Amino acid sequence: MATDLLKFAANLISSGPHKIESTPRRVRTLFNKIYIADTTSAKHVWEHPYFPQYYLPTDIVVGSSKDVRLAKGQPVDKDHSAFLGTLKVGEKKTDRVVVFEKGALKGLVRLEFGAMDAWFEEDQEIYVHPKDPYKRIDIIPSTRTITVKIEGVVIAESSAPMFLQETGLPMRYYLPKTSLKWEYVTPSDTVTKCPYKGDANYYTITLPNSGTQYKDIIWWYRYPTPESIAIAGKISPYNEKLDIYIDGELQERPKSKFG
User: Fold this and answer.
1) What pLDDT does 259 receive?
2) How does strand 172-174 pair with strand 162-166?
3) pTM of the full structure
4) How many angstroms separate the CA atoms of 103 and 5, rounded?
5) CA gyration radius for the chain?
6) pLDDT of residue 81
């Protein structure tokens, strides 16, 4: 039994989603080589304040193809407001499904984003989760000098940074890779994914005297998304966890959900 999904769905029913909105976008969902949904009636559902997920009309999924089977299983609550479900197409299936039959989400099905093979908005594939329509990214070049220090040691410095402002997050500073003090740098195996910027790679910094390691404290995007192409190949320090100086003035460390 998917106990995590059961707990999640029960909490969503009792507390309600943060927000629900219609979207005019054409949304297509691919599973086992079949579009199990192709609709302009999807809903943006904010399960929390940070970003939305796509919830699809149940009848759209059920009627998409004779090969699609959407079955209800265990009820989520005593009122049978929602059920855990199973989606099966051919020999492939997933139980990361919740079918809603009462309340604010009545008539919708939640297919876990990562359990599907692909999602498309219009003709563009989307990754990680749907983009928040109220979120934007601005990338602005600057000639102000950015100095990055850890325990007083200069890790990077540049007078040709890019300032990246992403809604709801601290200002990020992207510097040319050549600004790094490479003697302190070790590549990391960590990769994280962002729907707005792409796949991020990381560097660990090891200080010369103390030998202290700061794991994954610098990140960079080799192939960012088209809207963030200006930061391709540039490095960004984790400014919640180290010191940033702008034209010699120490900046206050921001607070965010990341640190």
Assistant:
1) 62
2) antiparallel
3) 0.85
4) 18
5) 22
6) 95
